[in-house]
Each structure stands twice: as C-alpha cells, then as structure tokens.
Design goal:
The termini are far apart. A hairpin with a 2-residue loop joins strand 9 and strand 10. By secondary structure, the chain is α+β, with helices and mostly antiparallel strands. The chain has 15 helices and 17 strands. The chain folds into 3 domains: 280 residues, no CATH class; 107 residues, no CATH class; 60 residues, Arc Repressor Mutant, subunit A. Strands 1, 2, 6, 7, 8, 11, 12, 13, 14 and 15 form a 10-stranded mixed sheet that branches. The protein has a 3-stranded antiparallel sheet with strand order 5-4-16, with no helix packed on it. Helix 5 crosses helix 6, helix 9 packs antiparallel against helix 10 and helix 12 packs across helix 14.
Length: 467
C-alpha cells in the first residue's frame, strides 16, 4: 500500500503589530481582549492597511525555499462563522498567492528527501477559544496576527517524514528570523492530509486539523494511516472527512464530513488593493537575507573543523550557533569552544538564552588552557557560575581551586605518593605503564584535583626512570 501525505503549515510572523492594524502581536501573556481595535474586530467602516514588515518576512521565506514570488498577488475573503472570528470572514490569499513553487530538502535516518512546495500565502489569524467546565470563553487578542500558510505537494511518504520535514522547516524559520515557530504557543501549527491506496495512485484523503507538536504530527498521521490500511484491507472505502487529534487520549476525533472550497464563498477583498512586489523590492529583501542554516552548517565544518554531526546539533537553534561562533572567536580555538559548548554548556541550556555569557565561558576556557585550573574543577566552576551568575575566576579564587604548578611542590608531592604506594612502583618497574596513571590519580586526590596532571606525570616518569 502507498501512503501519501501533504501538509498545510501556518506560521506566525515575528512582527510587532498585526497584519492590517497597529495592535500589538504580543498576545501570549496579555490579558484577554486587550490587544484589539475596530479593524481587527471587524467593526463597520474600519479599513485594513497592510503591514509591510509582514510581507518582507514572507518574502524571506519564499526566497529561502526557492519559490517564485509573484509580482501581483491579491487578498480574498474566506467566509465562515465561528465565535473567534468577529468579522465572519478571514482575509487570506487564494486565487493569487504571494509565491508558488519551491522545495525544502531534509534527511530522514540519514537519507536525503525533498518535498516540493505548492504555494505560500499571507493571511490573518483568528482569535482563540478557551474551553472551561462552564462553557467557552473568547479571547480576540490573536485576531489579525500575521500568518503565512505553506502548502506542500503530496510528496511525503510516511508520518516520520512529515515530522522531520517540519523540524527542518522550523529550523529554517528561526534562522531566517521570521518566526519563533514555537509550537507550544501556536506560532507553528499544521494541518495534515493523508491518503492510503492499494493501486499506487492517490487515494481518498482525510484531513487532521491543528496539530501543534512534532510528536502529535507523527502520532496522528500514524493512527490515520493504520485506520485507512485496515479499512482498505477489509474491503472498505475511505470517506473524505476531517479529524481532530486528542493528544492526551492518543486518538482521532471526527469533526466534520467532506468540505469544499465553495463552502467558504471566497471573493476578492474589496478593501485592499492588490499587492505588487517590484523587482527592486524583492532584491532589497534578498540583500538582507541571513545565512541559511545548511550554508552555515557547511561553513562550520569547513572553517571550524567541526564534524557534520556537531554542526548539525548547533544548527538546531540559531542561538546555539551564534553562541558557539562568538565563543570560538573570543577564545581563538574552535576545538575548545566546541568541546565546552557541546559537551558542557548545552546540558544547562533550557530556553533561547545561553546559561552563561560568552565572556564568562571564554574566561574559563582560557584558565584551563593556561594551566590555572584543571578541566575537572572547571566543570564544577561552570555549574556554580551558571547557578549563581558569578564570575568563574571569582569562584576559583574563593574555593582555592587554582592549579598547583610549582615544580618543587609537585616533586615533594610525587615523592610522598611513591613512598606510600610501593606496589604501584613495583608494577611500573615490571613494565606496567598504567601504574603511572594510578600514582598521578593518588596525587590529584591529595590536592583535591588542583595539581597539574601533565606535569605530575612527567615528574613521576623522571623520578622512577632515574631510579
């Protein structure tokens, strides 16, 4: 059997104001119904004015996907009635979208895949319903927030591919700076169409609405794929319906039967002139494009000597890549920067902000490199610096963690350890080179990890070799 999946992805654009008015888009923590005006509430006589910044962010995405930006596009009214849509219609683009074509490449289990893009258009968001035990409340703060809708061709062949496509798209959106694409906040939402057929052709599709996590996308599609396969194997037929997904229960919920475009009674938006993107405007946007994540990944491998896997981990979040690059430049050693950022700092990284400043981590890296503190103790200092916000070297001085590097003192320490461990000395003289490591370890224990292990090893070898 053949599975075919297409996605419709809604992305909230990172503008300060809404698509057609000057109301703030910072609705997530705002009190309900405080970020509204006559325009976004659809009051009679209120006229929309297009947000230029939203168009430019959408153009960035179009260029990154190698889509064809249409010089002429137009807004339409999509009519439907729901409590969170006060106008009774949504302003969107149907007949003449902003961009068409393009593609996005990604990897699934190491295998390259490419999904074509059908179109990308601008539209406004609706409000939000908040369901309670006593009924439903309506918050209109999100009305009019700018979205782009990216519609793929039916090129995706499995639920896992759908998940990885979305992961790659989110990475791109964040590196472009066009959206935070936080699925938990609804800034990236997905509707999925899936069909299963027995003859290799396209089967009857069903739709799953408003999937808001990568896990939900994969689980919901897998559930519907299994349902259709069982239905077809038993001689049944698939009907075109729309499902919701109950993540808590892990099951599909039937919402409505077959729906067609004419049900929305589309017609051209009479209050907005057509959108014309001149070649000059498009080139201005192109000139301001940031480095694409896959280009940056290749550069990190080429310039900094990272492995593709290391570079890939940093690319998952642009803040990580920015932080690594700043540390690498500040400390002058990409290898040291990668070792500390990937192995240590990422363990404490919880949100978009790094847990320790570039300056503080650079100070710690240089202290280890210059022999002022052992790497083992430096890890403890890093943890305390992150927890308290204090400067690393301030902690080193306070806790007396500076590395013992005085050669006379290290020789006295080595002689003391040799006297206390005759068996290890015998093992070394019998050809067991690993005994040196044991003796160094005993010396490190006596100093609380403050001794210079490399110098200690050289001193032990010199003393025992001369004897």
């Amino acid at each position: 059997m053949r599975t075919v999946i297409g996605l419709e992805i809604h992305v909230q654009l990172a503008t300060k104001t809404k698509l057609f008015c000057s109301c703030s888009t910072d609705y997530f923590t705002a009190p309900p119904n405080t970020l509204t005006c006559p325009v976004c509430l659809g009051m009679p006589g209120a006229l929309p004015v297009l947000n230029k910044k939203a168009v430019e962010l959408a153009l960035r995405v179009s260029l990154a996907l190698n889509a064809r930006v249409q010089e002429f596009s137009r807004f339409d009214r999509k009519n439907y009635f729901y409590p969170d849509l006060p106008k009774g219609y949504q302003i969107t683009q149907r007949e003449y979208p902003l961009a068409v074509g393009g593609a996005l490449s990604f990897r699934v289990d190491g295998e390259a895949r490419t999904v074509r893009i059908r179109e990308m258009h601008l539209e406004e968001d609706a409000g939000k319903l908040i369901h309670t035990g006593d009924g439903a409340l309506v918050d209109m703060n999100r009305c009019g927030v700018p979205l782009i809708e990216i519609v793929t061709e039916p090129d995706i062949q499995s639920p896992k591919e759908a998940r990885e496509f979305l992961r790659t798209l989110r990475m791109l959106l964040r590196h472009l700076g066009v959206s935070n694409a936080d699925m938990e906040k609804g800034e990236l939402r997905c509707d999925a169409n899936i069909s299963v057929s027995t003859d290799g052709k396209l089967g009857t599709k069903t739709e799953i609405k408003n999937l808001n996590s990568f896990r939900a996308v994969e689980r919901a599609l897998a559930a519907e794929e299994e349902r259709q396969r069982e239905l077809l194997s038993g001689g049944g037929t698939v009907e075109q319906v729309t499902f919701g997904w109950d993540e808590h229960a892990g099951k599909l919920v039937l919402q409505r039967s077959k729906e067609e475009a004419h049900d929305y009674r589309y017609f051209p938006e009479p209050d907005l002139v057509p959108l014309v993107v001149s070649r000059e405007w498009l080139e201005q946007v192109r000139a301001g494009m940031p480095e694409l994540p896959w280009e940056r990944e290749e550069r990190f491998v080429r310039e900094y000597g990272l492995s593709p896997k290391e570079a890939g981990v940093l690319m998952e979040e642009p803040a990580r890549a920015d932080y690594f690059e700043a540390v690498a430049r500040a400390c002058g050693s990409p290898q040291d920067a990668a070792g500390w950022v990937l192995s240590e700092v990422l363990r404490y990284w919880k949100d978009d902000s790094p847990p320790i400043s570039v300056e503080a981590l650079t100070e710690l890296i240089e202290a280890v490199r210059e022999g002022k503190i052992s790497r083992t103790n430096a890890k403890e200092v890093l943890e305390e610096a992150i927890a308290t916000g204090r400067a690393p070297m301030e902690i080193v001085e306070e806790r007396g963690l500076s590395l013992l590097a005085d050669e006379e003192e290290l020789r006295r320490l080595a002689q003391e350890v040799i006297r206390e461990n005759p068996k290890a000395v015998e093992d070394f003289r019998a050809g067991k080179k690993g005994a040196i490591g044991f003796l160094v370890g005993q010396a490190m224990r006596k100093t609380g990890g403050r001794a210079d292990a490399k110098k200690l090893s050289e001193i032990f070898l010199e003393i025992l070799g001369s004897n």
